[in-house]
Structures are given as structure tokens and as C-alpha cells.
Amino acid sequence: MTEPFKNPRILIVTPEVSSLPEAMGNTANTPVAKAGGLADVSGALTSALFHQGADVHVALPNYRRIFRQAVPTGHPSVAQDPDALPPVGRIHLAQDRAFFHRSCVYSCDGGKNSELALAFQREVVNNIIPMVRPDLVHCHDWMTGLIPAAARRWGIPCLFTFHNLHTVKCTLSHIEDRGIDGAAFWQNLFFERMPLSYEESRETNPVDLLASAVFAARMVNTVSPTFMEEVIDGRHWFVPRPLQRLLADKWVTGFATGILNAPDPSFHPSLDGAIRRRYGARDHAAAKQENKLQLQKQLGLVKDVRAPLFFWPSRLDRTQKGCQLLAEILGAVAERYREHGLQIVFVADGDFQEHFRFVAGLHHLTGRVAVHPFNEALERQAYAASDFVLMPSFYEPCGLPQMIGQIYGSLPVVRDTGGLHDTVRHLNPQKNTGSGFVFEHADPNGLMWAMEQAMGFYSLPPRTRQAQIARIMREGAVKFHHGVMTRAYVDVYEQMLGCAVTSSDRQQPAENVFPLKAERGPATGRKAASTRSANALPSRSRSSALSSCAAAPHQG
């Protein structure tokens, strides 16, 4: 008698996550550990797969203190005994004292982050993967960089997603001292120099965690297609040459792609409980004016619904975000549009805060410029109040503010790079196309030009302007949501496994979804292997989900 088909089991490994479905286990309301967009992506992807019937599991560190801070006192899912938080259901918490008492996901001390990463990976490699026995592992960022190499040894296909290019290097001896048997998969790792042997390299040849993940994973993806192209083409000086070559090899052979992130579904003006007045595309004009007055009151700005308001939502990082470009023209922009009452609001952390306060004071911009530390409630109010979002980034792996801005009717002013290129087209009201204002050259003049374009749009007749904003809001809500992102990841999973991963896709064969370009060379075919390697984990005691899912050889 033929046993019923079982969906392949997927294990998502992430250092941070937002809320998960309650039915995944009785700790599901507890694991909320967020430092950035990775948490939202991990949580949304896991939730969507679970609700579609996929056999999805998630592994993350047991941040006991953070989990308790994220759940209201008295919530039934909060255990009184710290030791009463074992992995339950489909949520698997990596246990180590290094995580238990932390108040934030990452440390300002890079060495401490390295130790946290090794403790997390030790638990995943030694305990969680052998217990879960996944058919596919999906790892996120450098803190999971050793796991693709271990999974490759066991014959488990791995997708590696990197949200930024940060990495850490450490020796095999240090990895092994932390309880990970690097000798078992050292040949799947990427070293600083070509290793001659295990013993020769163990003490003196550092392993690059990010490059190792790219080298060992079956598939890799960045969080925007254009950023992947930029890295491969060498457009960013800070990308190490070996990593660039690894990604280029993956791309040419059809094992690399880009998938855009999506903002948390709660970022929608019709649902947002943090803003003064909720609204949609139809009634945005009056509601945004009311929200503008509220923000101006909160930040001590001149109250004027007619004042064009620019909002800076990203951290004030001079290396990536281009805040110095705005600093150079802030006084000139404010003076040029003084009669319009132009206002600029910063709701962002970073060392450049004091510089903007100094420039605002130098040009006597009290009441027109406000600099405030990051606060999520204030951030949401600023999206609802502002007319434009400023993102003059030097590079941008993905970016979420430019997407959120469009959904809230705050049009993005962006540099043409990475995820900004993929999500913003220059506005042309006459042709009814575009959604923002895009400049090419990363210099103050380029940003000034884009802001002038934005002000030109702001000066259009209200009916024309409001019609364009309503269109952009509707289109943004359709394009930038987790359903689109999840579908893209499901397509990659099915391409890797050769079969459906959710019940709804059972009758639909997987298609080649990788956006390869002809000038980069065609994807090469790979003969499928019928069995896992000799070192594979034993099969699960259930009908094999991979009976019809052949595993192709890994690319190194």
C-alpha cells in the first residue's frame, strides 16, 4: 500500500525572528528577538510556509531575557522557570548561557558576536539538525556560515541568504574549541588562503564564515536582484575579491539569485494603530495633513499642513546611507525653499545625529529640522505625516523604508543602487508611471537635483498630485508584501528539491525561477543524484519526502 505523500521538511536557521504562529509550538509566542529586517523576513517566511501546509521548522538562539521582554507579563506562554523553555513543536531553541541573559541580539563587541555565532552553530550542527532531520536547510547571514558546510557533508541541500556583507574570520582550532567538529567538513569551508591539509591550516589559516556559506550552499541569494549584480560586477570596493568570484561562479552556473524582502504587514496606514489617523489611498490627503500636524507638534516643528516634509528613516551611517550628502546641502535646500516652509525630520540612531543638529543650528533651522533617536511609534507617525522619504544610499542590499514610504504615500527620494533600483522608478505624472525620484551619482549635487524634482512634484495642482500618490499607494501595497516574497522562496525551494513543498503546490511542477541573464552565461544542467552521500544522516522514520526529489551535486 502506497503511503501518503509527506511534504519535505524545511529548517530555517536564523539569529533573529519576529512573531511565529502559535500552532508551531507552545513557545511560539515567546521567541521574538529583533535587531532589523532579518527578523521580519524570517518570521514572515516561516509563518507563511506554516499556514500553507509546509513542514517548516525554525532554529534560533534561546534569548531568554529578550523573549520575556517581548511578551506581556502574565502571558500564558511565558514560563516561570527559565529551564522550562525547551524546544517544542517546530521551534528549536539553541541552548547556551551566552544567549540566556542578553538584552539585545548583537553586541557592539565584534569578538562577542563571533562567540555567540559559534555557540549557536554548535547547537544547530550537533543537536538540532540531527533531531529535525530536514530535507532542506535555509540559513540566514554570517552567524550561520558554518552550517551549509556541515549540511553539505550530510547531503542536505542548503539555501544561504545574506542580508548584508558582514563576516567574521576564525581558525579551525578556535571553531573546534567551541565544540564544533570542523575536521568533519573542513574541505567544505573557505579559508583565507588555499589549505594544503587539515593539520597545516588548523591553527594558522582563518576560515571566512560568509564566504564558507556561499562556497558550501547549494543555492545563495541576496535580498535584491540588482545588489547581486553589483557585487558580481565589482561595483562596490568593499566586497572582497574572493567573495565576488564565488558569487560569480554561482550566478553563471544558475545557483544564485536575488529575492526582495518585504516590510512587515503591520506597516499599512489603514491598519497602523501607532498613527494619529488611519487612511487608505482614497482618503490619504486629509489624513496625511492631520498626521503631519501631529508629528510637527510632537517634534516641536512649525505647525503648517502646507509645508513639504522630508523624512529620514534609516540609521545615520556615513559608510552606507549617504547622510553626509544631505549634510552638505541641508542649509542650501532649506534656504532655497524657505518660503515653502520645507521641513526635514530624522528618526534615526547614529553618530551623525550631532552633526545634523550642529548644521541645523548653524543655519537657524529651529522649527524646521528635527533630529530624534529611533523610536518605532514615531517612525510610523513620520511615514504617515511625511511627503517624501530620503534614502541617498551609497549601496543598499535591499532597503525597506522606500517600500513602506510608497505604501504610506510618502514618495521616496533615492539613489539608483541595489534594492532601491529594484523598487523605485522615477516618477512621470504625465505618463502615470514611476513612484519616486531617482538620482544616479552619489554626490551632493545628485541629491539636490532629486530633491528639486520632488519639490517640483509637490508644486503640481493638488488633484494631479493626489491622483499620483493614490496610484503609488495602491501599487505599493500590491508589490511589497510577504506573499510575493514567500512565493519567490517557495519557488527556489521547489527548484532545489524538484517537488512541491506545500500542499497547495502539489499539482504544480516547480519552474526555473532564477533570473539569469544571457550575457552572464547559461545555467548549466546538473545530473541528479538518487541518494545522499555516505555520510548522510539516517532517514527519518516516516515516508521519505524526497522519494521524488533528487538532490543535485553541490557547487563549490
List strands and helices in order, with pairings.
Blueprint: E1 9-13, H1 37-51, E2 55-61, H2 64-70, E3 91-94, H3 97-100, H4 110-132, E4 136-140, H5 147-154, E5 158-161, E6 169-170, H6 172-177, H7 198-202, E7 207-208, H8 209-216, E8 219-222, H9 225-232, H10 241-252, E9 256-258, H11 284-299, E10 309-312, H12 323-336, E11 343-347, H13 353-362, E12 369-372, H14 376-385, E13 388-391, H15 401-408, E14 411-415, H16 418-423, E15 437-439, H17 444-458, H18 462-479, H19 482-497
Parallel strand pairs: 1-2, 1-4, 2-3, 4-5, 5-8, 8-9, 10-11, 10-13, 11-12, 13-14, 14-15
Antiparallel strand pairs: 6-7
Helix pairs in contact: 1-19, 5-8, 8-10, 11-14, 12-17, 15-18
Structural class: alpha/beta
The count of β-strands is 15
Main sheet attributes: strand count, strand direction, barrel closure: 7 strands, parallel
- Approximate helicity band: 25-40%
Morphology call: globular
Count of separate DSSP helical elements: 19
Calculate the terminal CA-CA distance, rounded to whole Å.
41 Å
Q: Identify the quaternary structure here.
A: single chain
